[in-house]
């Protein structure tokens, strides 16, 4: 379990984390979400005792990180995948880490196997691809068989196979009853990976809820209608629908009437339909809506295209 209470972190006059409180519970993958610069890494560094809070505190399994006698057995973390010595092999890197914390050589072989690096374990890690580096970072995090696992942007730069692998690994760790906190600014990826979400923007808490609670927050869904008789259909439906939004000559969205009802009315009026599609806000749309005002730097893309990433500068 991770408990963050009234955490504030200032760098000079800049407030990176602003009175943030949340609890990460075992058994589910918790996504830590927010645009670039929202304060996720800073919060994670405080949790790991790498940064001191200005105000507030962070506890790992009931205690500050530095008060644990064997911290690697409490929490395993991946903050910077490039944190290994490039001349060292993956195996030597893990053996050195294991030696300083009383972890067996057998466990090193186990985690190499778990992350799929056994075959390249004796190569210099400096020659590793980004994905292999991420796997090694995750192996280091899991070395102490910790009850709590915290990964900062683990899917950054990974190919689809690597992303799928991390997604499955996180789910299996949570299914074993571990506490799993994973940060990302890739909203679409988190929607697929996590069940619970802590969303931050400009250092502040925006939401702390499950995926279903987030979905329940959405506005009434609309139904997209395409018809060669769009004008007549709009007149017909407009009397009872909450709203009708024209999208094109033959295309419009209906709010406040479900697809069955629209279909039935079009049928009785003998008006042909070419499309009838209920639209529901995706988790990704909800994330983007919630964090819109907290994005420090907007890129040239907008949230209506398929760029599933909040842009920074
Ligand atoms: N050591 C530091 N000194 C000064 N400012 C910092 C420092 N570390 C972080 N910041 C600032 O604090 C804010 C939060 O940064 P942080 O890296 O925690 O955000 P993040 O949510 O992890 O972003 P990203 O997704 O880009 O990693 C940013 O505005 C950042 O510029």
TrEMBL record:
Pfam families: ABC_tran (PF00005). Keywords: ATP-binding, Nucleotide-binding, Transport. PROSITE patterns: ABC_TRANSPORTER_2. It comes from the Bacteria. Signal peptide: none annotated. Residues 2-227 form the ABC transporter domain. GO terms for molecular function: ATP binding; ATP hydrolysis activity. The keyword Transport applies. The keyword Transcription does not apply. Belongs to the ABC transporter superfamily. This is ABC-2 type transport system ATP-binding protein. It comes from Streptomyces aidingensis.
